[in-house]
Amino acid sequence: MTKRDRLNADDIAAGLADLPGWSLAEDGLSIEKTYRFKSFVEAFGFMSQSALAAEKLDHHPEWFNVYNRVDVKLTTHTAKGVTALDLALAARMEAAASPACP
Amino acid sequence: MTKRDRLNADDIAAGLADLPGWSLAEDGLSIEKTYRFKSFVEAFGFMSQSALAAEKLDHHPEWFNVYNRVDVKLTTHTAKGVTALDLALAARMEAAASPACP
């Protein structure tokens, strides 16, 4: 199994357990989260960090931004579903959304 | 009239004449354009330049990105329509999408 193979429901559920706020879309083909920040600057800072991670993973989000809100959807088109790559990118986005220092 | 006052249809049409590819949304409340780039990196480069311009103007887009595509919608919520600020941000985005050198 490679990172680009479609995961089954159990594997997705196990992956989501480590990703607070993320959920499987109704159609089961993608995972989603809505992030809210203090400002546009913080929202776009998150997007910038996520974009670098996405490019490094060679796996990219579908996302919508208005002011301090970012709606993210992750799916792997070639697999027609959710793969380990989606979970990996979601984990990078969680890191990008969290302050580095306590 | 300030930059945050709602423009009438004639003023919007005059403004759009200088913004190739931009059009008034069906409901008349926003202006829209879909940009396509060679890659995610170019698309996000455009978004980064646009984000800096938006922050400087203190006026922000609603936008959706998937890979090399960026769908942009500009409106001024406080005016419930299109204002000079939307036209100004659209002009900055046009500049961001165009190569600086021939």
CATH topology of chain A: Gyrase A, domain 2
Shape designation of chain A: globular
Helix-strand makeup class of chain A: alpha+beta
Largest interface: A-B, 16 and 16 residues
Number of strands of chain A: 4
CATH-derived architecture of chain A: 2-Layer Sandwich
> How many separate domains make up the residues of chain A?
1
Terminal CA distance of chain A reads 37 Å
- Strand arrangement in the largest pleated sheet of chain A: 1-2-4-3
Beta fraction of chain A: 15-25%
Enzyme class (chains A, B): lyase
Organism (chains A, B): Ferranicluibacter rubi
GO biological process, one term (chains A, B): tetrahydrobiopterin biosynthetic process
Catalytic activity (chains A, B): (4aS,6R)-4a-hydroxy-L-erythro-5,6,7,8-tetrahydrobiopterin = (6R)-L-erythro-6,7-dihydrobiopterin + H2O
